[in-house]
Design brief:
single chain, about 270 residues, alpha/beta, four-stranded parallel beta sheet, two-stranded antiparallel sheet, 8 helices, 8 strands, globular
């Protein structure tokens, strides 16, 4: 499953139809393990389908289908995909767009519904620059997958509606669960709504604010053909990510073909 192409599944699409700033809600930068308020990392045994990963919710995850419930973690091609979570954000999203434009790179933006509602101009800018949109839940709810199917469906539809209020014809064929906290119900509902669950294979944990040097080193050392790289353009102080992106793009564009994930199953 993880090796197959990231062309969205050919399931019927269903149409439908907040502000995150430096001082706004910090969706992703939760306490790290060992910090006050942090939670112990769940143990996980490696499986044959992939190495252990750490999700952005700080819990141990294994890149195997038993844990991802079929969510895609690679592009399935030699191409590499950059993904940006938690936006749009009026401070950082324009910086990301400018850098991607400078290197003629298309990426995928996993947007939070309330931010899409409050910053429709940025959703429009993302689409205008040729990037792909991905549903990332209404309020970055890491526990969404534990809720009822009706609650999950309502959350995802509300987020799609906010995106389409900004860009009425925007294709939304991807869904990324906050924290990588995949469950069968959230995967099932996403697929019923015509969205393919999207995980990742390279995670520099930029939400922990490790600094540009560490973010850069992690991405450049782990990037490989087919990688899906997880970065953030919102949810807290992302200046380290911005600086890392300036260092990462020249190297990645020299070594790989970078792509926005496809929006058409054909």
């Amino acid at each position: 499953m993880l090796g197959r192409s990231l062309v969205p599944d050919q399931t019927p699409r269903q149409s439908t139809g907040v502000t995150t700033s430096a001082d706004g809600p910090h969706y992703a930068d939760q306490p790290s393990v060992g910090e006050p308020g942090g939670t112990p990392r769940a143990s996980a045994s490696p499986v044959e389908t992939g190495p252990a990963e750490t999700g952005q919710d700080g819990s141990g995850r294994v890149a195997g289908d038993d844990n991802l419930f079929g969510a895609h973690a690679t592009t399935g091609t030699p191409r590499l995909a950059l993904t940006f979570d938690d936006g749009p954000d009026p401070r950082y999203t324009p910086q990301v767009l400018a850098l991607l434009r400078e290197y003629d790179v298309r990426a995928t933006f996993c947007v939070v519904g309330e931010n899409a509602q409050n910053h429709p101009d940025l959703i429009q800018s993302i689409v205008d620059d040729g990037h792909t949109l991905c549903n990332h839940s209404w309020h970055h709810d890491v526990g969404l997958g534990a809720r009822s199917a009706d609650a999950i469906r309502s959350d995802l539809l509300r987020t799609n509606a906010a995106i389409r209020a900004a860009v009425p014809d925007a294709p939304i064929v991807w869904y990324r669960q906050p924290g990588g906290a995949w469950t069968y119900p959230v995967v099932s509902v996403a697929r019923q709504l015509g969205m393919t669950p999207l995980h990742w294979s390279v995670d520099p944990s930029d939400w922990e604010l490790p600094g540009a040097t560490k973010i850069t080193a992690t991405v450049l050392s782990q990037a490989a053909p087919g990688s899906v790289v997880l970065l953030h353009d919102a949810g807290g102080d992302r200046q380290g990510t911005m600086e890392a992106l300036r260092r990462i793009l020249p190297d990645l564009t020299a070594r790989f073909e970078l792509e926005a994930l496809p929006t058409d199953p054909t």
